[in-house]
Amino acid sequence: MKTKSSRILLIGHFGRNNIGDQLMLDSQISLLAGHNIIVASNEQINNIKTIRDSIIPIFISMRKVDYICFGGGTFIHDHHQNIKFKYSGHLKILIYFLLSKILKKKFNLVGNGFYPIKKSITKIVLKFIINNSNYCSVRDKSSFNELCKIKGLDKDKIQLTSDSALIKLHESILISKLEKTNYIIGINILPYYNIYENKPNLDNIFIDRLSIFIEELCKKISYLNPIIQPIIFNNKKTENETELISKFNNQLSSSITISDTVFLNNTEDVINTFPKFSLYIGMRYHGILFSRVFNVKQIIISYHPKCSVLGNELNVDDDFILTLENISLTNEKMDKLLNELNSPYNFNRDIELIHKFFFPDMN
């Protein structure tokens, strides 16, 4: 039974025009109703106190709260090769963790992903932080298993939960029972090479491959009169999906019907968009989750190991998990896809993942 209202600081990738991060934040705020919440965010949030997402205002706010909650998302992992990104997540979490310890505050890692873990420095940082934290939850089995392999890490501190973004969508799952009036293929792509490797020319090559694949697929299912529906998850200037989507649209032949691009800005946009899809082809981690929740078949373009392992956990066929370098299907796999598209997609909507996100007791 709640005895008092706690003061809680939430830190993550908030206020950066990313719908996945926005839903994670909305869910956390909903779950923490009744507590006094402060959010480190680059944007204002209705009825919630916000501070600028930088070290000085965060340090000042840390002094005033009882708990610091960091996450969710994938901050620490060993996938990036670009030195700019390689250890930025390590450093960010470590700094805020050390500040919380100096101020004698309770530090919680909430709904994070840590896959893959390969380097010794990553293992040392994670072991140090988790062993000395109040609580740690991870959002996927692969991250949980990676952490359990680290020698000396206190495994009793780790909880396997869902991605917190799903909580906000839970009450809306029944919308996916609506009849789909058109055969709509949702498309989401991000400029991976420009963001992470500073090689925008490779994004153009990727677009060429993807457009060829979509052309081939649309010819195969022309009897369904498919409609391409581009969707944008992130409007951040440094991760501009809009420009890449525009290039993709221009690559497609005039015989293919393309709808106006949909920008996903809030929960309602997701709820009003994903249930309409008959097929989703995309790169974003949360796009994979949304497709699973709303009963949409999908082809995953895995730009990061977290996408392929999530697809595996959600039982997406390996044949339909593609890479940036190989956006194609053999004739046999294309026939398999066509059979899949023409068959019912039945599973338990009330999936376990949706119910498993929670906070530790912070009363």
Structural description of this entry:
The chain is α/β, with parallel strands linked by helices and 363 residues long. Helices cover 39% and strands 18% of the residues. It is built from 15 helices and 15 strands. The protein has helices at 19-31, 55-62, 83-86, 88-102, 120-131, 141-148, 165-169, 192-197, 200-220, 241-251, 267-273, 285-293, 305-313, 331-341, 352-355, and strands at 7-11, 36-40, 49-51, 67-70, 73-74, 106-113, 135-138, 158-160, 184-188, 227-232, 257-258, 262-263, 277-282, 297-302, 321-323. Strands 1, 2, 3, 4, 5, 6, 7 and 8 form an eight-stranded parallel sheet that branches. Strands 9, 10, 11, 12, 13, 14 and 15 form a seven-stranded parallel sheet that branches. Helix 12 (285-293) links the parallel strand 13 (277-282) and strand 14. Helix 4 (88-102) runs parallel beside helix 5 and helix 9 (200-220) crosses helix 10. The protein is globular. Mean pLDDT is 86; it is low at 346-355.
